[in-house]
Design brief:
Two copies of one chain form a homodimer.
Chain A (H helix, E strand, L loop, with lengths): L12 H23 L5 E7 L5 H11 L5 E5 L5 H4 L5 H4 L8 E5 L4 H8 L5 H20 L3 E8 L2 H13 L9 H8 L1 H14 L7 E5 L3 H32 L25 H24 L4 E7 L5 H9 L7 E5 L5 H4 L5 H4 L8 E5 L8 H4 L5 H20 L3 E8 L2 H13 L9 H8 L1 H15 L6 E5 L3 H24 L1
Parallel strand pairs in A: 1-3, 1-4, 2-3, 4-5, 6-8, 6-9, 7-8, 9-10
Helix pairs in contact in A: 1-10, 2-10, 5-9, 11-20, 12-20
């Protein structure tokens, strides 16, 4: 597949000057239009050592307006990065809508290197590529433009290039021991690269292969490609913008009816005396288990969803009372900030992924996408429909990192909700919890019920089950939650001992 | 000073229950009012080991609404933190306006421990405390409420407490080797703490000393104190809000006239041929110097200010052309995002402080506070007037961390500015750079001139000089800037070799 990039392409200096001047004007103009669009642009510059990645990136930096562009490079992961799932370091750097991120090194660097050095086998490489494809699809579905450029160099040219770099004192530093090793493994490297490029050249994120032996040629090729892809993308975006509006009707009628929630027995209760005793017992237990988990650097994520007034806050408080305040964060999810709104909807949850040994409790969560955003029409049908698998993939990535995840749906019926609204209005320090919006949401009970049923059905997997909590009786619900977390931690610790 | 906290205060369980219930209601109510205010609340919980810091923090977490509160704990600094000035890790966690941050461990932990272990002497401790006072003053001036609580324990009680903790399997983990060491050094520790508390009990951030032997007593005392301080602060804030409005007139007439800018010789030029030669020479030089600095993990911060159309962008590009794109970030400063607006005005600059070996170029900067915000009345007179020393302190902290800082003012005259506006309107890819606002700002030339003169006079110190750049001739200005950066790097590298 690299033959086309071994022909010895080059561009005369005079031609380069002329063409780069006109390209720059066009790039600035398209970048100006991009600013007003809801699309982030992600440019990956990869390729063989000595293929001129750094030079091409420098040219792009020269040509584009630095106000709406950033270059992101990765070294060894920092400890803050190592303690989180591997894509976390990429998520934290993703460009905001309307801006460009140029990646020097990316999610491809590690899998390729690991396969070349035979630290992983083909099957593991395929698994990695699958995750990469999902990430790129997810970003692309959200409006991101992904431009991937591979700078290739024929073996003899790579040898010549590294020699030239070594000779010049101004560039000698660029040739590392790793480069020399890579050269020795050129054929292996090319073999792996071929497979990777084939399996990750998707309609939404195709690779461009560019010959890297002449910097004028490669930078013009990449620049021209960036220009064309952004232009196309903006055109397509302008057309699809209209479509998305049409489809913005929140509740699709094609959706099958699910009735999981109706199977819950909301008459379950727990007497006050039993509640007191069991609460003390499980809080004591949780305290010990949480400490052990912390000592072993095992993190947890607890997700709380439920009807308004279902008792999420009170339940969370019964958990945190038993934990060390230095060990957990409660993240209440409200309206996104503008920085959050300028990124993929999952970005603001990635921000709070716990470090090793820590616990994050989300009071409402990413499931807002398929609940409130769906019902209120804030997400288009295609957006919330694809969110089910995006969410499962996201949670699986957390799981793969060894994080313990529990998802609770706190369920009450409509009458109980009304009773609690009235009660809240009477108690001085609870009044601020109840607003007109709560009554408005209540009107849409049936739509929400449908959305909840579908959410549970589509995102409950054997590894990531929803825990449905009968919460008409607060005591019953709280004990069920705290016991479930204890049991899950116990199981995790048991497995750890083996 | 700790006698008052050695009397053996305690509270009966029944009294505790009653008082904590009423306290909780009041805390929630005041927290609700806080939400709507522009004030962040910073609560530091410090004290002797075994003084019940963790327990008090847990109680506060129970009592307050978790939606607008976070607990922040610090372990060993991560590598991302170590590579930046020491206050960076605190800045990144500061609570937003209207919210509460509870600090378990804080900027006090390190100086106290280092003095007790005799790693620093009294003079160094004093220097640290001075920096802390400045930080607290700066936050307080910005509307933050700082509540500092010290949990004290008599020596015999500390011994008894640690023994009790060690016996109970549920609390044993809390007693570390460090605690035992600290106990052996109790008297030294108390001596240092006394000095620290005395020197940092300021009108804007006084310490509360609380006896820590009974958790009911200490948590009620801290809770009551938090309640009263927030109530007072909100009252004062409501009154001062009016005052701040009165004083919001941007340009004070009392300000002395400075005439530094008038001394610049704007007729200085450089012929095109010379420019080309010198640019090539200094870009080559910069390339080598920047690589050496990177290898030595020495960071740089370059600040660019100047009149509209003074050529900041073009000058920055001539610098970055010579550098590795993976080694620098250009941070263009425009309107703050809402997350940035919810913090101290320096917060958004702290976000981009470079890691070890990296370069951050600010295209406009924190000096906006004393330029555009002053002239346009976006900052009150007292805000921009105190900003001069806040800024110098900030830059000194960067300097103390070993960062190389250069500040450039690019100067042109009014006629030259008009000529460039007209020119920009003619060139296709420069049109987007010129807006009505540029013409409006131009109308206020005299006000800006006064502000610039005062800024330079007040923030140019021997260690942190402003470099005034005669930029009517672009060639002249660019060479002056790149040469200055080269010379500064050379000096830094020379000193490093010694």
């Amino acid at each position: 597949m690299f033959e086309v990039a071994e022909l010895g392409h080059s561009v005369e200096r005079s031609v380069y000057k002329e063409r780069s001047a006109s390209l720059r004007t066009q790039l600035l103009s398209v970048q100006d239009r991009l600013k007003a669009s809801p699309c982030p642009v992600i440019i990956l510059i990869s390729g063989v050592d000595g293929g001129g990645k750094g030079e091409v990136i420098n040219r792009l930096n020269e040509w584009l307006d630095p106000h709406y562009m950033r270059t992101i490079a990765f070294g060894e992961p920092t400890d803050e990065e190592r303690e989180r799932p591997k894509f976390w370091r990429f998520w934290r750097t993703l460009p905001a809508r309307g801006t460009i991120g140029i990646y020097s090194g990316s999610w491809y660097s590690d899998p390729i290197a690991q396969r070349v050095y035979q630290k992983i086998d083909d099957a593991a490489l395929q698994a990695e590529l699958k995750q990469i494809n999902r990430l790129e699809q997810l970003l692309s579905d959200d409006g991101a433009l992904i431009i991937k450029c591979w700078l290739h160099l024929k073996k003899d040219r790579q040898i010549a290039r590294l020699k030239a770099l070594s000779k010049n004192p101004a560039t000698k530093w660029r040739v590392t021991e790793k480069d020399k090793q890579h050269l020795a493994m050129y054929d292996d490297f090319i073999g792996v690269a071929e497979r990777v490029l084939t399996d990750t050249s998707t309609p939404y994120a195709p690779w461009l292969i560019v010959e890297g032996s002449d910097i004028h040629y490669s930078s013009l090729s990449v620049g021209q490609h960036v220009l064309e892809r952004i232009e196309q993308h903006l055109e397509r975006q302008a057309m699809n913008g209209v479509k998305a509006g049409e489809a913005a009707n929140g509740v699709s009628s094609q959706v099958e009816q699910y009735h999981l929630l109706d199977t819950l027995d909301l008459s379950l209760t727990k007497a006050k005396g039993d509640y007191r005793k069991e609460l003390e017992k499980y809080q004591g237990k949780l305290n010990g288990l949480a400490r052990q988990a912390q000592a072993l650097k095992r993190s947890s994520i607890l997700v709380f969803e439920g009807w308004d007034a279902a008792g999420k806050g009170g339940t969370i408080r019964r958990l945190t009372e038993a934990m060390d305040a230095r060990n957990y964060q409660v993240i209440p999810i409200a309206k996104p900030t503008d920085e959050e709104f300028a990124h993929h909807y999952l970005w603001r949850f990635w921000r709070h992924i716990p470090r090793a040994g820590q616990v994050t409790i989300y009071d409402r969560s990413w499931y807002g996408r398929v609940l409130v955003e769906r019902v209120e029409g804030m997400a288009s049908a295609s957006q919330w429909q694809r969110a089910y698998s995006e969410i499962v993939n996201f949670e699986e990535a957390l799981l793969a990192h060894g994080i313990t995840i529990l998802k609770f749906w706190l369920h009450i019926d409509r009458d109980e909700q009304m009773r609690r609204f009235k009660e809240r209005e009477k108690i001085s320090y609870k009044q601020f919890k109840i607003t007109d919006e709560d009554y408005r949401n209540r009107e849409k009970w049936d739509d929400y019920q449908k959305a909840v049923n579908e959410m549970v059905a589509r995102t409950s997997t054997s590894k990531l089950p929803w825990l449905l909590v009968e919460a008409n009786d607060k005591y019953y619900g709280r004990i069920k939650v705290i016991r479930a977390y204890c049991e899950r931690l116990e199981k995790m610790l048991d497995e750890h001992k083996k």
